[in-house]
Design goal:
This is Putative secreted protein (Por secretion system target). Pfam families: PorZ_N_b_propeller. InterPro entries: PorZ_N, WD40/YVTN_repeat-like_dom_sf. This protein is mostly beta strands. Among the domains are: 147 residues, 7 Propeller (Methylamine Dehydrogenase, Chain H), CATH 2.130.10.10; 82 residues, Outer membrane usher protein (Immunoglobulin-like). It is 2% helix and 45% strand. It is built from 2 helices and 64 strands. The strands form 16 sheets. Strands 34, 35, 36, 37, 38, 39, 40 and 41 form an 8-stranded antiparallel β-sheet that branches. It is globular and about 85 Å long. The N terminus is likely disordered.
Length: 769
């Protein structure tokens, strides 16, 4: 009987029509690594993300994330508790969720919060009855799934490689090259209650253990598989597989997954072999006649266990991102363009991936596709920057850290540029490090190179002419960062790294005066350190982000926070020894402070109101006012659905105000309400809760706004109670008067005025005591 492949299409629906401050995740489930069966669904883990498909409707995919109720991100393992009909989810942080059949989530954070257990690595998640046994770098922990609490942790701080549950409440634990057995009714937290388990085969090279029926199976690192009756020292050889194969434990039996086949071991040591390649995981319920397989990039497969199969799986197409990495992003032509990264002081060898999203469909250019299409035997790795032509959304270039410059056109990679055929020089044979690429107003592509003399290049696409040059202060530096080109042709490029451990980084500002073939008329400045109005250095070490705002101020994000240079276009013509930069100051005398002081700012985008959306390393997402002197909003994991407080990149769709947030754990969107359109009739605005009752938490919310609307709340006599300007899609009012008490029962009015459309709307809500 042939294998039945479950193919499914992941459709990521944009939330463009929803303006209520909506968060959304756009996560990759490109590589399925784990599959578990439940009565009605198959739950699977891919790219650290949990998803499910219905058995009767496998094309309907549901992704689970923090927005849908999970407490964390980066899932390492899942297992199903049949007795309780609950899914146990283990995260890289050591956090645990229990997802019940009703959809409720019970969080167990004891392992995560235990500062004495440093290593949260998980080697095995085994569910037996109403308990889950977790073996990992922290030891062996026992979780009561029904009550949602950790009962005990044995061998604390020891890397427990595997665990098996035996009859008569016996536990088998493998660590430090030895097997130990203990009885759960004893005090197993006392190491002396564990005794060495005698076995006729050497345990030094053991990699996995698992019980099935009345037997224990052992997988050795060389691929040999043995079985022994429970509590018996005599093990019998069963078969051998390739070294590096894995043992997957399911209620129905054990699966040995090798590169070209899987072996199913049922009760009574019945072994069935299936000629199926590239199975990463297999699972089946206790009485199931079907195994569900995790097939990597081929998704999920269903395999009848009654017969073997020689059929090969078919590829599954996903309409989703190719991975969850977003080192650089930009939004242009109504599309999101993303390069996955990574960048480092040396080559990172991260498989190349470029993702393009038009709001409905994803196009992924992965390492294999690019290498096979272009040919030449190179490696497509470390894609770190992207630039798109102004005329053609399908024509763009990708800079890589070590493999040169790649050109994409008409939906295909078409060329690779490196030494020999261009001005792109190599710092080592076959090693061309391209970053900081951007187009000027004439359609010429500019870029920078790492660790070479002529480390600035320009490519005139129309004439196919290449130019390369450098300036003395920055020749041979290890890496530039990003490039921003001003309307007057000035180019600002931050410096990420110099060789030899030098702390001199700063900024290069230059203008070739339209003569790239000659540097004699060039203007340039190397700015090692920006200064304040008194001439004192700001003290920044690295500038990570650049953004020019609507007033011509260049805002920079650094290791000390954010600062800006007003009238950036005049810096090259200035005679001052160093450009003056302003660090925005908040508060009031005498309690003044620098905004985002000592917060590492990783990216900045400017919205239509000239406010700044600021991504940080470890502090989440900020919305700052036009002059950055006020924090208008702060979103973090602790107070929002944000996937991670570590923001790598940002991109803003100026048409509808959708902010793309590339976090360390994947991509999110947030509807900022700052689109270029207006709310013509203001029909989407509403107030909730309405009425505001005594049992409701304090306050009402005015939702469905565009940013920049004037909001006034009055009582029925016209007395003004509250006034503000919307900075996003929602405005909150605590419904309290000047005395701190909730306003009296009655009807209140909300007047909304949109200066852009010159439209207004009046709403009413009630307060009931």
């Amino acid at each position: 009987m042939p294998i039945l492949l479950i193919g499914f299409l992941l459709t990521v629906l944009p939330l463009r029509a929803q303006k209520e401050g909506i968060w959304n995740t756009l996560l990759a489930i490109h590589r399925t690594e784990k599959a578990v069966e439940t009565p009605k669904k198959i739950f699977a883990m891919a790219n650290g993300v949990l998803y499910s498909v219905d058995k009767e409707a496998p094309y309907e995919v549901k992704i689970f994330d923090r927005i849908s109720g999970l407490s964390d991100v980066s899932i390492l393992e899942i297992a199903y508790a049949e007795q309780l009909r609950s899914l146990v989810i283990y995260y890289a942080s050591g956090n645990i969720d229990i997802l019940t059949e009703t959809g409720a989530v019970i969080n167990v954070s004891a392992l995560q919060d235990n500062i004495d257990l440093i290593d949260k690595t998980l080697n095995r998640l085994l569910v037996v009855g109403d308990k889950a046994y977790l073996a990992g770098g922290f030891g062996l922990s026992v979780l009561d799934v029904a009550e949602g609490r950790i009962l005990a942790t044995y061998a604390k701080g020891t890397n427990v490689v595997d665990v098996a549950k035996l009859p008569d409440s016996q536990l088998l634990m493998f660590h430090s090259g030895k097997l130990y057995i203990g009885k759960e009714t004893d005090n197993l937290q006392d190491p002396s209650t564990w005794r060495t388990y005698p076995l006729s085969i050497p345990t030094t090279y053991m990699s996995s253990i698992g019980s099935v029926g009345d037997d224990i199976c052992f997988l050795l690192s060389d691929g040999q598989v043995f079985a022994a009756p429970a509590l018996s020292p005599v093990a019998t050889y069963l078969f051998s597989v390739a070294a590096g194969s894995t043992m997957e434990i399911a209620p129905r039996g054990l699966f040995i997954c090798a590169a070209d086949r899987i072996h199913f071991i049922d009760r009574g040591r019945q072994v069935t072999t299936f000629q199926i390649a590239n199975v990463l995981d297999a699972g089946a319920m206790a009485d199931s006649q079907t195994a569900y397989l995790a097939m990597g990039e081929d998704g999920l497969a269903a395999l009848p266990l009654s017969e073997g199969s020689t059929s090969t799986s078919l590829p599954v197409a996903f309409d989703g991102p190719g991975d969850n990495n977003y080192y650089e992003m930009l939004f242009q032509h109504g599309r999101l363009y993303a390069a996955s990264g990574l960048w480092g002081t040396n080559l990172m060898w991260y498989p190349g991936m470029v993702k393009v999203y038009d709001g409905k469909k994803w196009t992924n250019y992965d390492k294999k596709t690019v290498e096979e299409t272009i040919g030449g035997g190179f490696g497509f790795n470390d894609a770190v920057d992207i630039a798109v032509t102004a005329a053609d959304p399908d024509h763009f270039f990708v800079g890589t850290w070590g493999r040169g410059l790649f050109e994409f056109k008409g939906g295909q990679p078409v060329a690779r540029y490196s030494a020999g055929n261009t001005a792109i020089a190599e710092c080592n044979p076959g090693d061309a490090r391209v970053k900081g690429i951007a187009f000027d107003a004439k359609g010429n592509l500019w870029g920078t190179l790492g660790s070479v003399l002529n480390n600035i290049f320009m490519y005139e696409i129309e004439s196919n002419q290449w130019h390369a040059f450098s300036y003395p202060e920055v020749s041979y530096l290890a890496s530039f960062g990003n490039m921003v080109i001003l309307p007057n042709g000035d180019k600002w490029v931050n410096i990420l790294h110099r060789s030899g451990g030098s702390s001199q980084r700063g900024m290069l500002i230059f203008n070739d005066q339209g003569t790239p073939a000659s540097t004699s008329d060039d203007k340039y400045r190397y700015v090692e350190q920006f200064v304040n109005r008194l001439g004192a250095p700001l003290g920044h070490k690295i500038i990570y982000a650049l953004a020019i705002d609507h007033n011509g101020t260049m805002w920079m994000g650094s290791d000390i926070g954010i600062f800006g240079v007003h009238n950036a276009a005049s810096v090259l013509s200035s005679t001052s020894s160093a450009p003056v930069a302003v660090r925005p100051v908040g508060g009031a005398e005498p309690n003044l402070y620098y905004i985002l002081d000592k917060v590492t700012v990783t990216d900045i985008v400017v919205d239509k109101l000239n406010n700044k959306w600021v991504g940080t390393q470890g502090n989440g997402l900020y919305l700052l006012s036009e002059d950055c002197s006020r924090i208008l909003a702060h979103y973090a994991v602790s107070n929002s659905p944000l996937l991670s407080d570590n923001i790598l990149s940002l991109a803003l769709d100026g048409t509808d105000g959708l902010l793309y947030i590339g976090t360390a754990d994947g991509l999110m969107t947030f509807q900022t309400g700052t689109g270029s359109g207006t709310v013509a009739e203001l029909d989407g605005i509403y107030v909730y809760p309405n009425p505001l009752r005594p049992e409701h938490p304090d306050g009402i919310t005015i939702a469905g706004l565009q940013a920049g609307c004037d909001i006034k709340i009055t009582d029925m006599t016209g007395r003004l109670l509250f006034q503000t300007e919307s900075v996003a899609t929602e405005v909150k009012w605590n419904a309290r008067g000047a005395d701190g008490n909730r306003v009296a029962s009655g009807v209140y009015a909300v007047a909304v005025y949109d200066p852009a459309s010159k439209k207004s709307k009046l709403l009413r809500f009630a307060v009931i005591h």
